Amino acid sequence: MRKLASFFARPTMSTLRFSLKVALSALIALYASRVIGLEAPYWAGISAVVVSGGSFGGSYISGLNRAIATLLGLAVGLIFIAIMGPSIATSGLAIMAGAIICEVLRLEGGMKLGAGTTLIPTMIAPNSPIMSSFERAGNVLLGCFIGVVVNLLLWPEKAMVKLGETLRRNVGSIGTLLNKVLKSYALDTVDEDIVELSRKLKEEHADKAALLKEIVYEPEPGTAHRAELQRLSAVTRSMAEQMAAILGILEHTHGDSMRFLMKEEFLRTADAIEKAAQAYVDGGNSPAYSDAVTTLQQADDELEDAFEAIRRKALTYNYPTKEVLRFTSILYLARTVVQNFEELRENTP
Known about the structure:
Elements: H1 2-5, H2 13-36, H3 42-51, H4 56-84, H5 88-104, H6 110-117, H7 119-124, H8 129-153, H9 159-187, H10 193-214, H11 223-250, H12 263-282, H13 287-312, H14 321-347
């Protein structure tokens, strides 16, 4: 019985609130549609469900894209049926045109919706396309509006808060991953966790990109805080880019021996990076983070001093040019991440 239970997730308070919010949005939309006298009120309910949940910014963007895609699809369908009359060919051409227009306008998730909506005037109701299109448009606009309003008034989630949390997780993931990557390089070993951590980092980056769009539509004043979050996002994006570059180089370093000249320095830097990342997750403005960054700077200085000693002794001439380039590239990229941690200390709101 316990094994069976392990396959199911236990509902959280957040899940219960989301479910109630979605249900309430749909019920209000259905009722409003019937009061107005629109046909097929279930489209209002469906639209309310689709745009409900998440932050206000996310709900607003979803509702706006759904409304625009629907209106475009209906307009394209009406134009094609007016020109060519109802037929399979008309529907096919309308679908293609609707998809292209929505893609050109970069409506997120709107390409399929806009293309599919063209079928309402061309196939579903070719004898009364204008009235059917009006009914569908009215229901969708009504449902989207109600879904966005309910999302704003009932347990609203703030995109800026979620973005701040995502940024902290992002820094933590980068620190853990970079620690493993640098140690793999310094010790010439393979860490199987690197692939899974890289996948997790990409998912967090996608979440961050979506939230950056959503914070623009936050209804409350907070321009300075919003700008600071956008700047911090740029810093973490730089960190992720350096991380990706190091991973790309790491694939070609098997058998390189120059790394052992600075093995201890790389290992100390790897540990210092992970500690700084964890301190940032615990609190970017805390004294602990400031101390961790100071320790990281010291490790970075040791990296620089060790490399300068190698250059003074002309030891680089003992290794193939490509190996030297890989070594210096990883060194440069790792030191760039250290600079990013310093920027996080300066900019954390």
